[in-house]
Amino acid sequence: MFTVPNLLSLLRFPLALLFLKEDMFYRLISLALAMISDGLDGFLARRYKQSSRVGTVLDPLMDRFFVFFVIGVLLSEHQLTLWQASTLLCRDFAVILFGFYLVMTDKLTTYRFRAIWCGKVTTFLQFLIFTGITLQYSIPTYFYALFVLLGVLALLELYLSKEDQRSFHST
Description:
Layout: H1 4-10, H2 12-18, H3 24-47, H4 53-76, H5 82-88, H6 90-104, H7 117-134, H8 141-170
């Protein structure tokens, strides 16, 4: 489905490729446009009632692609260590762990996926870290620890949202 929100989500693919240029200006443009498209696609989908199943999969998929791609570039350039990259992905580990839980409890088909608060905060902070690294700032270690906390909170938020869905379905 080719809607403006979905096209904005797809824009993050070439923006990730733009990040390959080892030029601060292009990388900052890539990050800024990716952040704008990430916020704008969901807003436009809701505002103009263009939400779709394709969009609910495409948006987080393109978010993850962009983040993983940028982390891969920064790792290959030795601007991120493996432990720093791992902390940046704690929310993703939490989502995968929750997905295993849903599969093992046979609840995957009935679970209604939606954006979580911790996910939005994590994505914003990831972009902040990427911008700081691009601007050659030294990122304090405690900032990376924040991502571990957000990963734990994401897992808790996902579990509690499952409980909310159960109480909703039983009424």
